[in-house]
Amino acid sequence: NATVAQIGDSNALAVGDPVIAIGSPLGLAGTVTTGIVSAKNRPVRLQGGGSDTDAVIDALQTDAAINPGNSGGPLVDASGAVVGINSAIRTLGGDSSGSIGLGFAIPIATAKDVAEQIIRSGSVQHSTIGVNARSATDGITDGAQVQNVQGGGPAAAAGIAEGDVITKVGDRQVGNADELIVAVRQNPVGATVPVVLLRDGREMTVSVTLGSE
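RE: above sequence
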């Protein structure tokens, strides 16, 4: 006779909105902590803490106390609707350190998309531009500098070359390599998006049709 959780709208959240994290932090079952949405669309690389992934999520950031044992639990809004899945924290003193008010949740809109793909086809496809990049800045402009281009991939077909610095994908600014990943993945596989880049100090825009990985 469990009550089914209502699904909220993570896209409608604003910075400052109240949220509650639910889970079993440090083994303390049935714990709730409260806070606000601290930031939206925060690229967070899931590594460390025994994680076996190096994925980047486009996270909701919250100052609700999140600790080991919260992961997988819901982040809910003021009405009790699920708006995120608690996934990661930032710490100062190693993997076993507790919350310092920097917690991250997968937006429920992302989780729904992944779940629907798995139900429909048994697998998940993520959009890709077909490059490896590193964070770069010239002191004025931040971006993702292309280190290599996948042969026959989307970037190669669009004329993107090694050394180009990507600064925008679609309507989203790109300031580093992780931001490039989430900017690409917010678009569906097969979408054609404008990509703004710097080449030899000159800004140019190319159209890229995204592939899948």
